[in-house]
Amino acid sequence: MTQTKSTHSPHSYDFIVVANRLPVDRSVDAEGNPTWKRSPGGLVTALAPVMENNDGAWVGWHGAPNEKIKPFDEGNMHLVPVPLSDEDVEMYYEGFSNATLWPLYHDVIVSPEYHRTWWDRYSLVNQRFADAATKIAAPNATVWVQDYQLQLVPALLRVARPDLHIGFFNHIPFPPAEIFAQLPRRAQILDGLLGADLIGFQRQSDANNFLRCVRRLRGHSVRGSAVHVYDDAGLPTHISRAEAHPISIDTQRIIDLAKSPKVQARAEEIRRELGNPETILLGVDRLDYTKGIAHRIKAFGELLDEGRLSVGQACLVQVASPSRERVGSYLNLREEVEGLVGRINGEHDTLSHTAIRYLHHSYPVEEMVALYMVADVILVTALRDGMNLVAKEYVASQEDQIGVLVLSEFAGAADQLRHAILINPHDIDDLKDAIVRAVEMPEAEATRRMRIMRRHILSQDVTRWSETFLRSLKKDPTRNEA
Ligand code: F6P
Asked: For 132-141, what is each residue's pLDDT tens digit?
């Protein structure tokens, strides 16, 4: 889809992304002036190329509370910052988004908290994002709303601007009706999403869960992927569709980095720095309870206890990037994981080698690719994950095709990467056997599996994802004709 800046007004755009975060981080340039830099991260990596190709605008929070910033340009993108106060961050972001919806949508791994004040703030902030988008949207513009923080925005847009083409993409899982039904204000959330012409999910099972919720909790009629939406008076208003559109990565960027001599040299340096172990196992996650970090560390620790692996022969590098650090369940997780690492290292480290190299940092993508390249085995043991782009990045970075991916069946990526060693991370014995199998896998088998997975990742990159979604959004022939 070719989008150009509208000629209708100097300040309106034909293609707008609305996401909780803007795709930039603040930094300081060589002269000490504050400046903005493109930020890393799944969503940004996924949408930046689309934005650049379409000369679009992006509406989102710039990351600092209590600060009003004027719209500005970064590269080919027009960025519209939405301000959030301390209270907005506490109740809309940390509260309703990340202590209510996040655990609820991830199989209640921790208990969701329900507070009416959080809901009120979530509604208010969603209205603010919707207003910012409607203000800059050209007639008949396409607006693509991203993720669970903004589920009310599609309906708010539809009411304010019925001319818009509205897409929504849910990056995280959508829970089964029996779990979703717990949510106070569940009807408003479903109605919010149904404001979109097309609602995208990572897996078909997520789309099916949503359709079942809509049928059971709203009584709308569902035919295939289409929901026939009615207003309160029982009159048909429009058709909204729910489809699976699994997200991917900027594959070529990872491949180019993997070919770069600088990154290759860094990979070799990392192996030396770790004392040249025979096998490097890697975990890369935000420090989040959905990722199964403790499960993986426990499994690795037991393998050392049992002598099935040994320090010096094997080393687990665990990158756990800081995340949502003021939310209670994240604080608890950090204590649990760091306690486990400390105990295992205390028992198994030697003066020259460590069992687990734990890194509570974020790293630039160059360093991540160097880590992927040096890792003989990567452990993606999520208890529940919308997609997991780390699994796909690892596959893309395996130019030599011999790395082994151990992948949770509860991550969306398992639908596409069927040739990984698929595991149930709750079954620690199964996980331990899978780790040993990965470590001992004959090169021919590892190569065969990796070749098949790479073929998939090469053909299904993030550009393909966005093109497919936007094409489907545009092609809906029944829009507003129900
Ligand atoms: O996976 C959902 C998501 O919101 C991603 O889009 C994002 O990269 C990650 O979680 C972290 O989100 P945040 O730091 O904004 O809470």
From this structure: 999 999 999 9
C-alpha span between 168 and 451 (Å, rounded)? 33
Whose CA is closest to 441, among 274, 279, 264?
279
Residue with tokens 């939310």: 327
Please count the residues of the chain: 482
Enumerate the β-bridge partners of residue 42.
Answer: none
> Residue 156, Cα to own-chain centre: how many angstroms?
24
Rounded distance from Cα 104 to ligand 1 centre (Å): 15
Mutate-to-test residue for ligand 1 from 147, 169, 201, 362, highest number of ligand atoms within 8 A of CB: 147
Radius of gyration of the chain (CA): 23
Question: Which tens digit of pLDDT belongs to each residue from 429-448?
Answer: 999 999 999 999 999 999 99
pLDDT tens-digit series, residues 160-193: 999 999 999 999 999 999 999 999 999 999 999 9
Sort residue 49 into left (φ over 0), alpha (ψ -120 to 50) or beta.
alpha
* Cβ–Cβ under 8 Å, residues 179 and 100: no
Which of 18, 24, 43, 323 should be mutated for ligand 1, with most atoms under 8 A from CB?
43
